[in-house]
Amino acid sequence: MEPRTSKVDRLFIRNISLSSCCEIGDTHTLAPENDAYAIQRQLPIFLGSEGKFSDYDTFYTPLLVTNVYEPIQTAFVNDEPIINVSTVKITSVSAASIIQVGSTATIDAQFRGINIRNYLRTPNE
Prior knowledge:
mainly beta
């Protein structure tokens, strides 16, 4: 990866959260991780025993990683040694996401989430 200079005139980000990152320039590795457990209820009744990551396989089962190697040929012609960006406007970035102007050799982003919604129903439904 040939290093280049990244130049951003204006960058507007309203919200960046939950293990997300904004990278201007080159980096070797980005590895954001986020675990989320959300309960949404029509009535705000919550039990003290809720919200344990250990109760769900999702949070501790190892991810399957495939190491597939396929030889490919690439050619890059960077006429300019500078990456020029005028304006970037972003409303929101969340849950192990990446905003980048530049190059990264390796990205290993991971999000594991459980979202539970409990709603009341009337007898006629």
